[in-house]
Amino acid sequence: MISRTSRFATLFAGLFLAFSMVAIDHAEARRGGSFGSRGTRTFHSAPPTRTAPAPTAPLERSMTPNTGVNTPARQPQAGLQRPGFMSGFGGTMIRGLLLGGLIGLLVGQGFGGLAGMFGFLLQALLIGGAIMLAIRFFRSQSARGPAPALAGAGYGQASRFENRAMAQQQTDPARSFTIPGFGGGSGGGSPAAGSEDITLAQTDLDAFQQLLTDVQEAFGREDHAALRRATTPEMVSYLSEELADNAQKGLRNEVSDITLLQADIAESWREDDRDYATAALRYESRDVTRERASGKIVEGDGDHPTETTELWTFTRENGSNWKLSAIQQA
User: Fold this and answer.
1) What is the three-state SS of 290-324?
2) 3 state SS of 55
3) Using the 8-state DSSP alphabet, how is residue 85 labeled?
4) pLDDT, tens digit, for every residue of 175-198?
5) Is residue 82 scored above 90 in pLDDT?
6) Which backbone phi and psi does 269 adopt, to 5 degrees?
7) Which SUPFAM superfamilies does this entry report, sorted A to Z (predicted)?
8) Is residue 243 pLDDT above 60, yes or no?
């Protein structure tokens, strides 16, 4: 016969485990992600470059409607948006089994009912893990397929533009925003209907490097006016949402000392009166999250910069100033 003290101790441990399962869904939430718009190429994968040779994560959030024309590009997007096994039906089933076993323990079935429940729980976890591994394997195989066809064209265009940028450096050594290792031109993928590839000038590359610094610093200062000047309205909405979420949690994200290390143009194109350019950027920055009240660092290293590689897409209308329109994690 199980004593009342042992029974309640087991119940407490089980409830703690159940609530830990609920909390694990949100333990990995961090600032960042892939969001924004790339015109008609929003749901196309950007060509690989030397700066970002691996397949790029598709946009997770965008206001651009997906017409379904580019069906292969939609599959990885759906994969990123799928809930984890511990959320959705799988998590609900497991938590239900656990709580059911605890209730059985309370009504007098003892550890026998609880042990049977844990045995079934272990089987469910093993089956779920096998299914998840199979899904990831097939997705990685399909995502890896088109990369070789795009890589050669992208590198060829980058090399031609890099040579021109190096020649400009030699004729104008005082240029302050020359981007190291920057390629240019189109990545050479399959252009979407209604778009044509374009070639960029050094002034465009200088503008991209400046926007990298301006957007990061404006976000760290929580300067909404500066964000509106440097990004599209859609990007302003996403970044403002992140700032509001940080404020609600009593946190503040600070980004400073941004240094561009390497960059390439993955592709650049025109749609009607609007130009687009997607650049792979590898940069260093001091990125920390602090408590608003105390100033204590809760995430990041304030003494050492961290390295980040992302794809930033810029857009301009009728030859106006470039603005950031999308960010993708490389």
Assistant:
1) EECCCCCEEECCCCCCEEEEEEEEEEEECCCCCEE
2) coil
3) T
4) 444 566 565 444 444 555 667 999
5) no
6) -155, 170
7) NTF2-like
8) yes
- Paired tokens of 95: 């938590």
CB 230 within 8 A of CB 211: yes
Q: Which residues in the chain belong to E strands, given as ranges? A: 35-36, 196-197, 251-271, 274-291, 297-299, 306-317, 323-329
CB within 8 Å of 31: residues ≥ 6 apart? 242, 246, 253, 289
Other Cβ atoms within 10 Å of 137 Cβ, number: 10
Reported as a single tens digit per residue, the pLDDT across 57-77 is 779 899 999 876 544 444 444
**Tokens 């469910």 found at:** 124
Task: Say if residues 211 and 179 touch (Cβ distance below 8 Å).
Answer: no
Closest by CA to 192, choosing from 71, 274, 69, is 69
Ranges in the chain annotated CATH 3.10.450.240: 44-61+164-329
One-letter identity of residue 184: G
Strand pairing category for 297-299 and 274-291 = antiparallel
- Report the amino acid identity of residue 32: G
| pLDDT score, position 141 | 58
Percent residues over pLDDT 90 in the chain? 46
Angstrom distance (rounded) from CA 15 to CA 95? 10
Residue with tokens 């240094």: 259
pLDDT digits 0-9 by tens, 278-306: 999 999 999 999 999 999 999 999 899 99
The CATH number of 44-61+164-329 is which of 3.30.1030.10, 2.60.40.60, 3.20.20.370, 3.10.450.240? 3.10.450.240
- Nearest residue to 326 (alpha-carbon basis) of 260, 278, 267, 273: 278
